[in-house]
Design brief:
Helices cover 34% and strands 25% of the residues. The protein contains 11 helices and 13 strands. The structure holds coenzyme A. The site of coenzyme A has 20 residues, from helix 2, helix 6, helix 8 and strand 12.
Length: 326
Amino acid sequence: MKSAKIVGLGKYLPAKRLTNKDLEQMVDTSDEWIKARTGIKERRICSKGKGSSYMAYKASEIALERAGIKPKDLDLIIVATITPDTQFPSTACYLQDYLKAPNACCFDISAACAGFVYGLTTAWQFIKGGLYKKVLVVGSETLSAITDWQDRSTCVLFGDGAGAAVLVDTKKEGFMSSYLGSDGSQADILILPGGGSRQPASYETIDKRLHYMHMKGNELFRIAVRIMVQAAKKSLSQAKLKTSDVSLLIPHQANERIINAVAKRLDIPLERVYVNISRYGNMSSASSAVALCEAHEDGLIKKDNIVVLDAFGGGLVWGSCVVKWA
Ligand SMILES: CC(C)(COP(=O)(O)OP(=O)(O)OC[C@H]1O[C@@H](n2cnc3c(N)ncnc32)[C@H](O)[C@@H]1OP(=O)(O)O)[C@@H](O)C(=O)NCCC(=O)NCCS
């Protein structure tokens, strides 16, 4: 039976840091509040004119190098992003051009913070079905471009970055299961309302600040904990595993309190949960991608380990996948 395994990981974080102290100068907030309520200390900001495709490119170069795979050998490039360079062409097409990967077909996935898990699952299924053999999956976000820097309830939370994974076919270890879900009836909880076909960009949408993210943080918090617990349990049971089998849980990095609550309810000790939110904030689809890459770089993922990704975001969307590390 054919499966897919990850053979290379990469990340890119822009050099510019925005600390909580910097934010104190911009809105009515404090380092203490941000750390206590979210766990975030600083986040990175992409330089002007360099969007999500550029960061995706820098992360992908590293992932491909580590995989020992040349761009021209890629069959498929998937970029998960809610901050594409342009509405169209897709960010994946721009990435293809940066990489010089003429033999790949390319598309974006819009699944907010669950985008990387959606992308990995899509790549796995394409490989399992036999259509493609070598696939690049990237989570890349320039959230600073859609953040309202006058709104203290959101601007302290988000950051920019990218993470990339190269998947190839295998007959042995690799992806074991995936559980994805969505609930479009709760779209308003986390949304960028302006600039799309329903409310095209206009002076009015700009005046009303509709081209920025709007979030009902309190409501999201409760739903996020419940759904992330449920998603991890479902993907584990599909793989015929228990939470005690998990070597490393890589949760989406939206809020340290959400991560702690999820770990507690899953009965997974925090030593087996990867957390880097203090350094980067919430990078949407890039969060899981960067966390997976860093956990691997830190030597926390070894052969035969059971790694569980678990993400949740605006849509609503959620997803969890189980990988036996090859
Ligand atoms: C956003 C979030 C950090 C807010 O934390 P919270 O504990 O729920 O805080 P609340 O929104 O209830 O606000 C509490 C108070 O802090 C204030 N506050 C909000 N942001 C603040 C800030 N940056 N600095 C200082 N005070 C702030 C609020 O105005 C409120 O004041 P009030 O009680 O006088 O009205 C939290 O709800 C969260 O992380 N939600 C989920 C986010 C998420 O999952 N997002 C994306 C999914 S991918």
